[in-house]
Amino acid sequence: NKQSGPGNHYAFIHELILFHCGNGVSIGATNVIDNIRSFSSGAKKIEGEKVHPTQKPVALIRKLIEDSTKPGDLILDTFGGSGTTAVAAIESGRNFVLMEQDEIYYFTAQKRIKDAYERFNGGG
Questions:
Q1: What is the DSSP letter of 79?
Q2: 58 lies in a domain?
Q3: Please, which contacts does 111-115 make with residues 24 or more away whose CB atoms are closer than 8 Å?
Q4: What digits encode the pLDDT tens for the residues 20-62?
Q5: Helix (H) or strand (E) holding 49
Q6: How far does CA 83 lie from the centroid of its chain?
C-alpha cells in the first residue's frame, strides 16, 4: 500500500488529532463536522502529480484549527508533509511548528509556507 493515510475512504477510516491544553484550559466538543465530503480533496498537483499522497484540504485543516484554538496559539504538526497545516495556521492567524523528515516534502512545504505568508501577511 503506497498510501499511508485514509485516502477517499473517510467513512471507514479516521486519523487522530492530539490536543494539549495548559492548566485550567478545556476544549469543548460542540462544533462537530458532520460532512467531511463538503471539503474539496485539496490535493494540489505539480506537473500532473499529487504533491503528497495524504494531503488534506487546507479549508478542512483551517476549520479544525479555528474551532479548537485562538489566534496567536501554537500549532504543532510533527508529520508536516507538504505544509498544509502551516498554510492553514497562517491563514487563521496562528503560529506553527512543522516537522518533516522527507527532503522533497520539506522543500515543497517551505515554498507553500513562503507563498502563504506573501498572500496573507503582505510578504512578512
A1: S
A2: yes
A3: 112/82, 112/83, 112/84, 112/86, 112/87, 113/83, 113/86, 113/87
A4: 667 666 655 555 555 555 555 555 555 445 677 777 889 989 9
A5: strand 49-50
A6: 7
CATH number of the domain that 88 lies in? Answer: 3.40.50.150
Q: Does 37 fall in a domain?
A: no
| Gap between the Cα atoms of 85 and 98, Å rounded | 8
The three cell numbers of residue 16 are: 487522530
Give the cell for residue 94. 496562528
Task: Say which amino acid occupies 14.
Answer: H
Q: What's the CA angle centered on 76, arms 62 and 29, to 5 degrees?
A: 55
Residue 31 is assigned to a structural domain of this protein: no
